[in-house]
Amino acid sequence: MLVLARARLGLRAAPLARGYSSPAPAKVPIALIAELRKAHPVPLAQAREALEKSGHDVSAAIAYLTSSSAGANKAAKVAGRATTEGAIAVSLLDNRRAAMVHLACETDFVARNDVFRALARSIAETAAFLDPPPEGADVEGTQARTGTEGVDPIREFAVDQLTAAPVISLGDKRTGDTDAVQTVAQALLGGVSATGENLVLRRAVTFAAPFPATEHRLVPGAYTHGGDESSGKIGGLVILDVAAQGGADGALNALLAKNGLEDELNALARNLARQVVGFPTKALRPEPGVADDEALLAQPFMMAGSDQPVAQAVADWARDRGLTVEVVGMRRWCTDDL
């Protein structure tokens, strides 16, 4: 009654005794939210929630965002969403191993996000480091599409096998705790939590050069466009088979050791990968359904400043250096292919 009477007189109610109050949680400072989002880009509401749960500690909030439990809960909520954007990431290891992966997301905003790109690169590095699946585990696409006999040296890496593998290198601590051993699947869950979007590893290929290489050497080249040097909207991967003219045992290694020729060879492989990306390349040679401008070896070698067909330009380049060079494998992926 006293409270009601005071209200009718326009007087404020007396505050409750301190022991009976229920204070609201302390508001998260905007500066902390900004700091967290700069280090680990996430939606505003997600950043605020993480800071609330971690007692306004930015490091603890990042750990929460990259935890498997947080990622699993988020993944369950977004699993049905369409993933029409993404990145193609490539990795070269000592010019002996290579890989290319396609990681899909929902929006172009996330596709350009540093955390997402770092995750895609880490998966590509993992695929490049690991040995290709055994022959019995191959999936459709491993046979050479060159019109020649043999097996394409670029191997399809089954997604379920790759996601079960341990991450070899995340490379960027913004993707999570790089000291903790985690699988690719767990890294993807951390990426879902960090970006707030559905992430799907669509496909992967890998290559490993035989070792030791004496008479022949397989040399990979990789390139991406529409992003940074190792991830973008389009990716290309090529494999060259290199030998010394005449095929003398040991002659190849001796040639490549002279006058920076090995660096020139690696640059040629990269230029061929750029060519693959720069043209609507579908195959190595013209074939039914593949026009000349869609066949790598029939295209003018624009990336080397030549109007000669790629096949002739490569043959001339190799002959002048005492080598034979043949393109034996190729892939070109775009994020809107699927």
From TrEMBL:
<keyword id="KW-0496">Mitochondrion</keyword>
<comment type="similarity">
    <text>Belongs to the EF-Ts family.</text>
</comment>
<dbReference type="GO" id="GO:0070125">
    <property type="term" value="P:mitochondrial translational elongation"/>
</dbReference>
<keyword id="KW-0809">Transit peptide</keyword>
<protein>
    <recommendedName>
        <fullName>Elongation factor Ts, mitochondrial</fullName>
    </recommendedName>
</protein>
<keyword id="KW-0648">Protein biosynthesis</keyword>
<feature type="domain" description="Translation elongation factor EFTs/EF1B dimerisation">
    <location>
        <begin position="98"/>
        <end position="284"/>
    </location>
</feature>
<keyword id="KW-0251">Elongation factor</keyword>
<dbReference type="GO" id="GO:0003746">
    <property type="term" value="F:translation elongation factor activity"/>
</dbReference>
<dbReference type="InterPro" id="IPR014039">
    <property type="entry name" value="Transl_elong_EFTs/EF1B_dimer"/>
</dbReference>
<comment type="function">
    <text>Associates with the EF-Tu.GDP complex and induces the exchange of GDP to GTP. It remains bound to the aminoacyl-tRNA.EF-Tu.GTP complex up to the GTP hydrolysis stage on the ribosome.</text>
</comment>
<dbReference type="GO" id="GO:0005739">
    <property type="term" value="C:mitochondrion"/>
</dbReference>
<dbReference type="InterPro" id="IPR009060">
    <property type="entry name" value="UBA-like_sf"/>
</dbReference>
<dbReference type="InterPro" id="IPR036402">
    <property type="entry name" value="EF-Ts_dimer_sf"/>
</dbReference>
<dbReference type="Pfam" id="PF00889">
    <property type="entry name" value="EF_TS"/>
</dbReference>
<dbReference type="InterPro" id="IPR001816">
    <property type="entry name" value="Transl_elong_EFTs/EF1B"/>
</dbReference>
